[in-house]
Amino acid sequence: MYWILKHVCSYIIPLLFSMFSVFTFGQENSMSGLPKEWRQLWSSPPNELRPLQIVHGIPPAQATLHAMGTLKEIGFGGIVCNVDFNEYLVSDTHWETLRKAIQAARQVGLVIWIYDEQGYPSGAAGGLVMKENPAFDSQVLVYDPSQVQPFAIRSAYEHTHASNNYYAARRCPNLIDKAAMHCFIDKTHQAYCEKLGGDFGEVQAFFTDEPSLMAVNLGQLPEHIRKNVRVDDPVDQTVKPLPMVPWCNDLTQVYQRRYGVDLLAVRSSLFTGKTEKDRLVRRQYWALIADLIADRFFGQIQQWSHTHHVASSGHSLHEENLICHVGLYGNSLKALGRMDIPGLDVLTSEPSEVLRSMWLTASLPASAALFNGGRKVMTEVSDFSQRMATKQSATLEKMQATAAWQAAFGVTEFTSYYLSSAMDQIVYMIDIGSTIPFDMAKYQGYCEYVGKLNAILRQANPDPKVLLYYPIYDLWAEYLPVADKLDLSRQTQRAQQLVHTFFTLGQQMVRSQISFALTDHEILSTAKVRNGGLWFQGRRFEALLLPANVELPETAKVVVNQWEADGGYVFRAEQQNAVVDMQKLADIQKNGFLEPACDHVVAGRFIRDCREILLLVNVADKPYSGRIRLNQPDYWLQADPDNGTFKACKSINSNWIDVSLDANRAIFLISPAKSTVGEMISSSCCGSDFLSFPRHGA
Q: What pTM value is reported for the model?
């Protein structure tokens, strides 16, 4: 009896003590219920949690302690920089200026990243790669049925992103030419390593900007923009727009080795044909292209980065346009998965855009990081659209809400194109007006806000329970290149249905506060079924949503069927406007269900130190007031990243608390630790697999 009493007391007394400790943080503005590390980071976010200002080419007068100190005073935590674009990569004077700037940044404690191109898209090394070997030019196979010989291989320049971007009309090397990309890395990454010498050790990551296969016509720039864009390589106006697919010198050999088929004999199927044979050729071709760009471009950079102890990062092109993913990358999710810190591009500071297409822009890199074992996700963020339209900068509230919804999706690294006159320059690559006054308090408020978001979330792990299937495998079979601007309406009915239902399901979940990750057929095929859950590298998922008309490959189909038989929830959309049972998904998540329902609040779910974290973001210009369902609501804490306050959540009945969100505002809701109240927050919340941070903290 004594032993039993002693054994029980050894559990009960610590439990009562910890519950009393949790109760003490019920006072207004108290953080006593949180670990000391959390409190310290929240009170004073360090540089590594703050935004990094993008600065292209630092003038000699600003490569100083004073300039870098001023940047830090504004609130930025670091810089994304590069050697001056003038005499790019070849001027010893400019290299010396960059060395001095990095030394000054290091002395004031700023984080340092390198931007890897002279403008964008990345891959050209400012033209040095093409100068090294003109044969490195991007190639496409084009199709012109009006000709006796309808197929031809030509440069991917006219009618592509290379000649239609805001920075410069410039030929771009071929991202699936291994030698060309080795040359790019040698001209950029290796040059920074050698020229910076011992100072290179201060560099944490390389940022690559919108590299692509150039095999899609994205449309022409408006004339008032185009006439001001620099032209490095003349554009031949006589080149006929034609349907195109990416090409490289050894593609036929690689295709033959993989599939045992002569690609030239079946190439017409890449452009036309409705038979199963045609669809198989397209599916095999694009699967190979996806592997080549993942290995030869993103993979080569990642391998070099790991060897030199830096992280690879950046973002892709047209993340928000699903049909473009085929021609530009084969598989955007796979390409991003070969980055240590995958990223996105947010050109608008209108938060409500997340409800339309920006959710996909963020979900891609966030899911890539989730499944490659990383945590960090990068954003290149600005109010570019607002400045272009109105010549006015975004308000602080809009900037903060834009940061918050991205954090809800998993973003941790905020690289900023917001204006910073402290560096005495416009950081945009085109002149969009420089008369906007600089508001020191606004940028200090923004940087502090981002720091507080990261104080809670950087060391937390995203905890989605739902998977949305990314139907790239199906789009490979359906995709038909077109000569003019790529438009979904020009694709097959099945392709349109796949894309529309994918977006419908994603938008429904975003507008219903359902946290989810994207999975393709390859990731799905590696999952394990156990105890009614679908497991990936120590993460358990409870539901899978499939767009209409999806055809899973056999390896993925076996997993899904086994999971369904084991009790897993699989939703198969049967029509374009399919409506999923959001109540069922809300029940799977347990916490975070809003009443009344609200379609302009975005939610993110995370686990840290065995505590559940909800980030709620109102992305609209109107307030929300209602209640939210929480397990053990009396023990949860509410934190406001705008004013820095904390307060205990007060239940209004058994599992609900009141919640109010002003327009463009966000709040954290933080649970007690699992061990405090004995609640199982996540089946793997304390597991080593779940909390791993491989690859340079990525």
A: 0.91
